[in-house]
Amino acid sequence: MADITVCDFCNVPNPQWSYPCRDFVAPDGVSRSVGNWLACNHCMSLIEGRNKARLLSLAVDAYLLDHPEDILDVNSIREFAEEVHRLFFANITGNPTPTEVPFARA
Ligand SMILES: [Zn+2]
Predict the structure, then answer these.
(1) Residue 66 Cα to ligand 1 middle (Å)
(2) How many CA atoms lie within 13 A of 2 on its CB side?
(3) Does the structure show a pLDDT above 70 at 30?
(4) Distance between CA atoms of 39 and 31, rounded to whole angstroms?
(5) 67 Cα: distance to centroid of ligand 1 (angstroms)
(6) Can you count the helices (H) and strands (E) in the chain?
(7) What separation in Å is there between the alpha carbon of 45 and the centre of ligand 1?
């Protein structure tokens, strides 16, 4: 069974791009980002255009879709995501490469 991968920013399935990224510890001091970050075409263009505000609002919206109970905490979610994105941009080590598309395999 193929794993379903999702965009690390907006959660759409089967993201097309993989960003090489150094491991880092998230602002909560507990979660760790390990390895590459995946991005869909849309988020990749936002990353390349350094459109961080749009990328942040996509990520917050995607999070709240999965965790609607956290809507009252939206300011701290936004601050957390903003810091994670800042660390992501600080730790990118190269250009994005295309991911393998699972359903294209024989
Ligand atoms: Zn995306």
Answers:
(1) 15
(2) 12
(3) yes
(4) 20
(5) 17
(6) 3, 5
(7) 9
